[in-house]
Amino acid sequence: MNGNRKRFWILSSILVSAMLLTGCANERQAEEPPNEQQAAEPSDESSEPSSVTEEPQVETSESEEILYIRIEAGSQSIVFQLNDSSAARSLYDQLPLTLPVENYSNNEKIFYPPKELDVSDTPPAEGPAGTLAYYEPWGDVAMFYGECSGASGLYELGEAIAGSDQIENLAGEITIEKTLEDSGAVSESSSSVQTEQQLQFSIENMQSKANDISTEEIPPQQEAAEFDEENTEMKMNIQIGNSTFTAALEDNAAADAFASMMEETPVVIQMSDYSGFEKVGPLGTSLPASDSQTTTQAGDIVLYNGNQIVLFYGSNSWSYTRLGTVDDLSGWEEALGSGDVTVTFSIK
Predict the structure, then answer these.
(1) Does 259 lie in the same domain as 169?
(2) Phi and psi for 139 in degrees, rounded to 5?
(3) 157 and 244 share a domain?
(4) Sheet of 173-179: strands edge to edge?
């Protein structure tokens, strides 16, 4: 009996121990996920600063640098901005260069860099005047002063940002060198300012010379002679028999033509009396008439019908072209008389 009780207590102890061990094992296993989460959380927290400090930063690489070149020949200067291509970089790395420039077609100037350009990742060329391009089959660089319509093997290098209108005038040898954008703008602005200054200087110089001429002293005799020449009417002599009269010529085409005739040789006209107030005679040629209704007085000399000369010693109203007026009528009517007369006209 005592032996059975002893065995019972031993088995009971074993059973309780087994249950306790099983419960402890289940509890650790149930707590593993939180422990794993807790183990992971410190790791995440420790990595957060690393993610902040390693935030991507914007860096300017060499390929993103904007490149500028200047091409000059004599007074011509053009600045080009190169694109971000391997061909443009290949050209830039060869500078500075001094090379001959050539005409090609009717819209471009070309030159040949000593080394071929790498055209990988280089876009095809097509654009307006000012386009800078590379033609791989020939190895030449083209500067377009007309439209660049594109071609197989033609690659874009950049575009002109200053002086594109001067490309067409490039000739002989050109220099190609690296430059800065500001220097190109300053150069163009400086050139413009210099041109304006030169223009202003020329205007001021011309004005100064004009003032010098206007204020230059003229000798009184010369001034008086020039004044008389400008204001003196052209005179002619009218000889009738032994009497000579002077007359002032009108300022018109008929009087000028008549004066030209008299300058060559005196004009002699046989004149007849008409209606008791005039003498009329044929000139033998026509003068440029500008007839208008005219009331004449004694001493008036007129052109009638374009080809007849009339001398008045009385008055009449008709359509005439005035030629001149006798200065002094003393003896005028008496010299003309009542019959036919021979009259000689000459320049005084």
Answers:
(1) no
(2) 80, 25
(3) no
(4) 97-100, 173-179, 68-73, 76-82, 154-162, 131-135, 140-144, 108-111, 102-104
Judge contact between 122 and 44, C-beta under 8 A. no
pLDDT in tens, 159-193: 999 999 999 999 999 999 999 864 544 444 444 54
Query: Whole-angstrom Cα distance, residue 291 to residue 287?
Result: 11
CATH number, domain with residue 259: 2.40.100.20
**Is the residue at 214 inside a domain?**
no
Q: Across residues 114-119, what is the average pLDDT?
A: 96
The answer to whether 109 and 168 are in contact (CB under 8 A) is yes
Query: 138 falls in which pLDDT band (50, 70, 90)?
Result: very high
Name the percent of the chain lying above pLDDT 90. Answer: 64
Residue 112, domain member (yes or no): yes
Question: CB neighbours of 137 closer than 8 A, spacing ≥ 6?
Answer: 153
Q: How many structural domains compose the chain?
A: 2
- Tell me which of 125, 157, 185 is where a domain ends: 185
Give the tens place of pLDDT for each residue, 57-109: 544 444 468 999 999 999 999 999 999 999 999 999 999 999 999 999 999 99
For 192-222, b/e burial (b = at least 16 CB within 10 A) is: eeeeeeeeeeeeeeeeeeeeeeeeeeeeeee
d(CA 186, CA 112): 28
Domain range enclosing 84:
65-185
